[in-house]
Each structure stands twice: as C-alpha cells, then as structure tokens.
Amino acid sequence: MDHAGAVAVGQLLVATQPGRGGYFDRTVVLLIEHQSEATVGLCLNVMSEIPASSVLSDFTELMSPPVSVFEGGPVNQDVVVALGEPASPESPPPGWERISGDIGVVDVNYPSELLVTSFTQLRVFVGLSAWSPGQLEGELIRGSWFRTPVRSEDVFGDPDGLWRRVLRRMGGSTGRWSTWVEEPSLN
User: Residue 143 to residues 31, 54, 179: CA-CA distances in angstroms?
Assistant: First the structure.
C-alpha cells in the first residue's frame, strides 16, 4: 500500500499500527479540507457523550443512528460540523458543499427550516482532526495511515467496527490489519 502521494479531500485515513494507544488508535478519518495552510478531517468512529439534542436539536430526526454527536478530532472542540447526504443529489441544497459523491459538509448556520427537508442523512461532529503544512504527508511517509476513497456507508453507517470493515474492503496485505486483536502475542 502506497502511503505517499497526493492528499485529497474525500479520502479516508485509516490508522495503522493498532494497539499503540493515543487518540487516533483504530480511527477512520474523512478529509474534508486540504489547503496549503492546513489539512482538516473528521473522525468517523469516535462517539462523544454529548447529547445530539444539545448541539443541533432541529436536526436530530435526520441524524443517522446512533443519534449521537461524534468527536471529529482532538482540536477545536468548540467547532460543530455536520456531514449530510442530500435528498436530491442532482440539485444540491444551499448550505451544502460536496466532499465526495453524495457526501458533503452542511453549513449548520444556514436556516434550519430550509435544511431539514433537504437531507436524508446527517451526522454531527464536535472538534476537528487537523494537520499543519507537511505534517500529514510526513505521517503518510512514516506509514501511520492507509488511504482509500470514502463511501456513504462509512460516514452514515454503524461506526462500530468501521476500522475493521474499511481495512477488510481494502483487501490484500492491508486487509490483514483488520484481524488485529488487542493481545499482541496473538497477532
């Protein structure tokens, strides 16, 4: 698996070397922004203890199960980001910016009465995963992440077991990481 190459919005970063601990152990991160100043992503499989109703109460009916707020990452914990799938992808709603396919960032400051009928699925995140210029590229070269394109079910599906499912889907020697167990002597 090539860890180098161009970083792009819409890629999933899948943590390698499980069991080492730390915030990103067994995480799957969707890259939502990549510019010269920074790269920004959202952890798709880290749930918070924040009730969804306390963040975006107008949108709880649209939230994909589990109806929870997810931890997008360890920085900027005051930032709220929503990912949504439009009800009518051929005419995207206002306040929505495409990331990949039918997945996009929803402007949570847009009037909720206009957004509620515009989406079939929604996932809400607090916080971000962010890298300074060159930082993510360095981590890729060191082999800290695998990369693969995102699918809708990665964002809006069951977060439990997401890390294993994505690795398995990647196949080959990368797919073997999905069988990693907590006890190192069993690997």
Answer: 17, 38, 18
Question: Cα 143 from chain centroid?
Answer: 19
Kindly report, residue by residue over 73-95, the tens digit of the pLDDT. 999 999 999 999 999 988 888 88
Tokens of 111: 């009037």
Identify which of 42, 50, 48, 29 has the alpha carbon closest to the alpha carbon of residue 81: 42
Q: What is the pLDDT of residues 105-122, one digit of tens each?
A: 999 888 877 777 889 999
CA of residue 151 relative to chain centroid, distance: 11
Residues whose CB is less than 8 angstroms from the CB of residue 135 and which lie 6 or more positions away in sequence, other chains included: 39
Report pLDDT digits (tens) over 11-60: 999 998 766 667 898 999 999 999 999 999 999 999 998 888 888 877 78
* DSSP helix/strand/coil, 51: coil
Give the up-direction half-sphere exposure of residue 137: CA atoms within 13 A in the CB hemisphere: 11
**Which residues have CB under 8 Å from 68's CB, separation 6+?**
47, 48, 50, 51, 52
Domains and CATH numbers, the chain: 11-186 (3.40.1740.10)
Q: How far apart are CA 187 and CA 10, in angstroms?
A: 31
Length in residues, the chain: 187
Q: Using only C-alpha atoms, what is the Rg of the chain?
A: 16
